[in-house]
From TrEMBL, chain A:
SUPFAM superfamilies noted in UniProt: Quinoprotein alcohol dehydrogenase-like (SSF50998)
Pfam family name, one: PQQ_2
Domain Pyrrolo-quinoline quinone repeat: 48-151, 174-268
The protein's name in its UniProt record: PQQ-binding-like beta-propeller repeat protein
InterPro entries associated with the record: PQQ_b-propeller_rpt, PQQ_rpt_dom, Quinoprotein_ADH-like_sf, WD40/YVTN_repeat-like_dom_sf
TrEMBL record, chain B:
Pfam families given in the database record: 60KD_IMP
Domain (Membrane insertase YidC/Oxa/ALB C-terminal): residue spans on this chain: 25-240
UniProt-recorded name of the protein: YidC/Oxa1 family membrane protein insertase
Keywords noted in UniProt: Cell membrane, Chaperone, Membrane, Protein transport, Transmembrane, Transmembrane helix, Transport
Annotated coiled-coil segments of the chain: none
Length: 353, 265
């Protein structure tokens, strides 16, 4: 009787602990799939695995690691560099995989935080931003060349014009760095945290959106602000630069086409659901995704062309692959949905157990 | 409903305090926990008084006689019990009702801390949605300064010392010790150590510290900090009400031992 009672109370205490632990949530649903397409292969980082998929039919070529390893989670879109598929995990390890087989080639363990953003590959160097506030520059063997420290976490992929690296940070600043030394050339206070990457034009203008409800155009040469435009809602989005327009959506559910020249709104539409990530251009249409699973295409002049709803959460923009749109889906049964240019479903990838 | 009534207001109060104390999240957690416990203090007083009255009833001679007299007639026993409650002016729900009211508040506090400790993209998106734009400016708040002493409050805590190869989980140890102390100090002396409630208390006091310590080891250190503050405030509240049971942790005096041994016989 006494033993039974002990077991009963022990079970009760375990249930309380599970309740408290359960309230804290799991890391497994803490981000969304990162999708990168290289020629005929799509690389998808989500949860415990990185998957390599055939773009033509969605069949899986390999996955890494073969067996899930507890808290080792992958969310940042992998980057490809001369025979290296570089992908970071939530245990602060940056992995280099063989893009053909998924075999691990080396790891970099010098960072302290999560790899939330994708690395940038430029001239046989890897520039990898980490949540520990550092941008790490590595060679293709994973050796550290230099590191640059911002004052807050780095969640966005850097961009480059070949001469400089431009890194946006949660600390409200955009930094221009020398790619060979990591020396800061200039820093610009943007007035709000930047979660997503900026976009860089051929004319040397950086377009960036912030959580301070701003879109800014910044001269890459010296960091001076060309124009900035205030909007109604916060942005968690990378603008799409197409022709002389920028397309982006906000957390309040509005999509905008704005002039790249001065930031004036050309057209806007209210989808009523938060938009994150970057829109995509395909066959003369700009395609947005919304948090609640909608994929919506607009013509250049703002007419809605088609709309499909997928099961799951869409936090990242679609990626173009072989005239198809690949949509990474979080918290759904399907991980990647391929759509045709008109929004028809081409194939779907469900990860094997 | 739960979100709108409890979680969102709590998150905003927490972040308001965070702004007020110079964007120190650790200090904000301590003050927010203190504030909530102050607000719920009258309920706790009622709960303690109710529990004490029920406990004293267990020693009441009349009640012992009733129990003996109607030990084979549960229905009659219940009737007599209710009559005795009326006679002594005891409200049987006086201890459990305040607990029921406090429970959602404490759970809300815990959940609001989890939301505010956003350290991944989806968590941050969720946090932004909970902020009242009229009260707080997202652009000034995000990213939250989660650094407190040697800890990143969004991550599990380890104190890294240069001469040690592994980090020391200081907070997990403190959580274990304070949970143990709280359990021991707040458990009232039982008239009969073999009754169900005494056994429950003993089991809780045995297992809970380790489970709370494990949670502190694995969850964000901001939550572990909350566990410590909450334990210390709980002990302080009981101390102010003169309800701490020091006998549970102090070594028993020699004069007490024979009488207890005698009681067992």
């Amino acid at each position: 009787m006494k033993r039974r009672s002990k077991i009963f109370w022990f079970v009760n205490v375990v249930l309380i602990a599970l309740l408290l632990g359960g309230c804290a949530g799991t890391l497994a649903s803490s981000s969304w799939p990162g999708v990168t397409v290289v020629e005929e292969t799509a690389y998808v980082a989500y949860g415990n695995h990185v998957y390599a998929l055939r773009v033509s039919d969605g069949s899986m070529l390999w996955r890494f690691p073969e067996k899930a390893e507890g808290q080792r989670l992958f969310f940042a879109a992998p980057a490809i560099a001369d025979g290296h598929l570089v992908v970071g995990d939530y245990l602060a390890v940056l992995h280099s995989l063989d893009p053909q087989t998924g075999q691990e080639q080396w790891t970099f363990t010098g960072a302290q935080g999560r790899w939330i953003a994708s690395p940038l590959v430029l001239d046989s160097r890897i520039y990898a931003p980490n949540a520990d506030h550092h941008l790490y520059a590595l060679d293709l063997q994973g050796n550290l060349l230099w590191k640059f420290k911002a004052s807050k976490a780095l969640w966005s992929q850097p961009v480059s014009d070949g001469r400089r690296i431009y890194q946006a940070s949660m600390d409200h600043f955009l930094y221009a760095l020398d790619p060979s030394t990591g020396q800061k050339i200039w820093a610009r206070d943007l007035g709000g945290a930047v979660i997503y990457s900026p976009v860089l034009s051929d004319e040397g203008i950086i377009y960036i959106s912030t959580l301070a409800r701003n879109v800014l155009a910044i001269r890459a040469e010296d960091g001076s602000i060309i124009w900035q435009k205030a909007f109604e809602n916060n942005f968690w989005s990378q603008p799409l630069l197409q022709g002389d327009r920028l397309y982006l959506g906000d957390l309040g559910g509005k999509v905008y086409a704005i002039s790249a020249q001065d930031g004036t709104v050309v057209w806007e539409n209210n989808l009523g659901e938060p938009l994150t990530g970057a829109p995509t251009w395909l066959d003369g249409e700009v395609v947005f995704t919304t948090e609640n699973g909608k994929v919506v295409a607009y013509s250049e002049d703002g007419n809605q062309k088609w709309k499909v709803t997928l099961e799951g959460k869409l936090y990242n923009g679609p990626v173009v692959a072989n005239s198809h749109l690949l949509v990474g889906i979080a918290q759904g049964k399907v991980l990647v949905q391929a759509l045709t240019a008109g929004g028809q479903q081409a194939w779907a990838f469900e990860p094997p157990k | 409903m739960w979100d709108a009534l409890i979680i969102t207001p709590f998150v905003n109060v927490l972040l308001f305090i965070y702004n007020l104390v110079g964007q120190n999240f650790g200090l904000a957690i301590i003050l927010f926990t203190l504030l909530i416990r102050l607000i719920t203090h009258p309920l706790m007083v009622k709960q303690i008084k109710g529990a004490k009255a029920m406990q004293e009833l267990q020693k009441n001679e009349k009640w012992l006689k009733i129990q003996e007299k109607y030990k084979n007639d549960r229905e009659k026993l219940a009737q007599e019990q209710m009559a005795l409650y009326r006679e002594l002016g005891i409200n049987p729900f006086a201890s459990c009702l305040p607990t029921l009211i406090q429970f959602p508040i404490i759970i809300g506090l815990y959940q609001s801390l989890i939301i505010a400790l956003a350290s991944t993209p989806i968590e941050l998106l969720n946090l932004i949605r909970h902020i009242y734009p009229a009260l707080l400016k997202v652009e000034a708040l995000i990213p939250l300064n989660s650094q407190f002493l040697w800890m990143d409050l969004g991550l599990p805590e380890r104190l890294v010392l240069p001469f040690l190869p592994v980090g020391i989980p200081v907070l997990a140890v403190v959580v274990t010790v304070t949970t143990y102390l709280q359990g021991k100090l707040m458990t009232p002396p039982s008239a009969n150590p073999k009754d169900q409630s005494a056994m429950f208390s003993n089991m809780m006091n045995l297992y809970m510290p380790f489970l709370m310590g494990y949670l502190a080891l694995t969850l964000a250190s901001g939550l572990a900090l909350y566990f410590v503050v909450s334990n210390l405030i709980g002990i302080l509240q009981y101390a102010l009400l003169g309800q701490l049971n020091w006998q549970n942790i102090l070594p028993k005096r020699a004069s007490e031992k024979p009488s207890k041994a005698g009681a067992k016989k």
